[in-house]
Specification:
The chain is an alpha/beta fold. It has three domains: 3-108 and 211-276, Adenylosuccinate Synthetase, Chain A, domain 1; 110-206, Adenylosuccinate Synthetase, subunit A, domain 2, CATH 1.10.300; 291-346, no CATH class. The chain has 14 helices and 20 strands. A ten-stranded mixed sheet has the order 9-7-5-2-10-1-11-15-19-20, with helices on both faces. Strands 14, 16, 17 and 18 form a four-stranded mixed sheet that branches. Strands 3-4 form a two-stranded antiparallel sheet. α2 crosses α8, α4 crosses α5 and α4 packs parallel to α7 (161-181). The longest helix is centred in the middle third of the chain and has 21 residues, at 161-181. The two termini are 25 Å apart. The structure holds inosinic acid. Inosinic acid binds next to α5.
Length: 455
């Protein structure tokens, strides 16, 4: 096996929202194929060019490049209704005939049925104040059906209409009966039926795209010398096995997910790009040791109706960390691309970053949103946790309030430049020394062109 048949990977190293869309779009010219290996419409990958912002949920972020093929891989959960809407949105920029050339779908990907979205909401409601804060896109229930061997797969769409319809109806019915038995009243049978009609239409729409046997198709691309980039969604700390369980998503967001989600052998993995933000954010519930404003921020961000205009005085240098967090959120525009929710904001967590590098076998780091930290008088990095009177730089299996983050302080900077002797360069050097990895690319704004390459 030579380097040519290897597949490079891009994964998020934090809790998602690291800016994967922009980086994949920027890396795409070097590749022939971009392949999503997990997740579904819970993702919101944002790309900006020509003063236009695009948010992708299911379709890989190589879509805006002609002559590149984008695979929706086996490990994904696809909502046909969301897929159709996304394609319709793209038709404003790319003709349908061209989209059909640029998108292929793996037959083993799983379908999100309308009832999965209802179940997602019902499960969250049942958890009360222990809710995960999911995107309510049906991700967990669709993966649950897969693991319990009941899922409807993309390949089922190709079967005769009656077989496909019966399979979908059976599963919908089983879930509806369970909801009725549990006395869950969070759904409207009429609306659900309407959505089911839409689902069948959208499933037919999916047939207009090439549906392929994912692992064989990718193997063929690699054998022909094509270069493949695997695009992760969410982030390492949301991984079902290695994230802050149970406050995680339902898939393997880490590099191992490339093998299980695309059918790629481990010895075929080449470069692993690990993307992290210069600070941290998290959307939804769950531990976040370096959160600015701690519990107060978590509760503030959980109140979806909250109006941040209520705190016009918040400044990025406010002595109150809660207000500083609000200012950081505004400056970094940290609002969910899929749900619009407020993202909780905090300092870079180095133990968590090192853990993510270890789990993924990162070879190259990429830092995003470095520009957002410009203007801070002091910038902090958590380099240790204090627990039971002792220090550790290991991510605890279960992060609790007993873990107190310890910080190293850095003088702030006015502007991000590639110069080697600025306070920003000190910040980079510290992260590189601690992780033992080069930061090869630095993103300094949302546009394609706002980037420094240091390779
Ligand atoms: P789910 O993936 O919708 O089940 O949500 C599970 C957890 O993952 C919640 O905390 C979500 O906020 C989070 N999550 C899911 N997708 C994303 C994403 O693309 N970016 C950031 N967080 C996400």
């Amino acid at each position: 096996m030579n380097e040519k048949n290897k597949i490079d990977v891009l994964v998020g190293l934090q809790w998602g929202d690291e800016g994967k869309g922009k980086i994949v779009d920027m890396l795409t010219p070097k590749y022939d194929v971009v392949a999503r290996f997990q997740g579904g419409p819970n993702a919101g990958h944002t790309l900006e060019f020509n003063n236009q912002k695009h948010v992708l949920h299911l379709i890989p972020s190589g879509i805006f490049h002609p002559d590149k093929v984008n695979l929706l891989g086996n490990g994904m959960v696809i909502d046909p209704i969301a897929f159709q809407k996304e394609v319709e949105g793209l038709r404003k920029y790319i003709p349908m005939e061209e989209l059909k050339k640029r998108i292929v779908i793996a037959s083993g990907a799983k379908l999100i049925l309308p009832v999965h979205r209802i179940l997602d909401g019902a499960n969250e409601e049942a958890k009360g104040d222990k809710k995960i804060g999911t995107t309510k896109k049906g991700i967990g229930p669709a993966y649950t059906d897969h693991v319990s061997r009941n899922a409807v797969l993309v390949q089922d769409i190709l079967k005769d209409t009656r077989t496909f319809t019966n399979k979908v109806n059976d599963i919908q019915e089983q879930h509806c009966i369970a909801l009725v038995l549990q006395n869950k009243k969070c759904w409207d049978a009429h609306a659900l039926l309407q959505e089911l009609f839409e689902f069948f239409d959208a499933a037919r729409f999916m047939q207009r795209f090439e549906i392929v046997n994912g692992p064989y198709w990718l193997d063929k691309q690699l054998r022909e010398g094509k270069k493949v980039l695997a695009e992760g969604a969410q982030g390492t700390l949301l991984d079902i096995n290695f994230g802050s369980y149970p406050f995680v998503t339902s898939s393997n967001t880490t590099c191992g997910g490339v093998c299980t989600g695309l059918g790629i052998a481990p010895n075929r993995i080449g470069k692993v790009y690990g993307l992290f933000k210069a600070y941290c954010t998290r959307v939804g519930s769950g531990p976040f040791p370096t959160e600015l404003g701690g519990k107060q921020s978590e509760e503030w961000c959980a109140t979806e109706t909250v109006k941040e205009d209520a705190t016009p005085c918040a400044s990025i240098n406010d002595p109150d960390p809660f207000l500083q967090g609000i200012a950081l959120r505004r400056k970094g525009y940290e609002f969910g691309a899929t749900t619009g929710r407020l993202r909780r904001c905090g300092w870079l967590d180095l133990p968590a970053l090192k853990y993510a590098c270890m789990i993924n076998g990162v070879t190259n780091l990429i830092m995003s949103k470095a520009d957002i930290l410009s203007g801070f008088e002091t910038v902090k990095i958590c380099n240790n946790y204090l627990i039971d009177g002792g220090f550790t730089d290991e991510m605890p299996m279960e992060i609790s309030e007993l873990f107190s983050p310890q910080y190293k302080k850095f003088p702030g900077w006015d502007m991000v430049t590639p110069a080697k002797t600025t306070p920003f360069a000190e910040y980079l050097k510290f992260i590189e020394n601690e992780t033992g990895l080069p930061i090869s690319i630095i993103s300094t704004g949302p546009d394609r062109n706002q980037i420094f390459i240091r390779e």
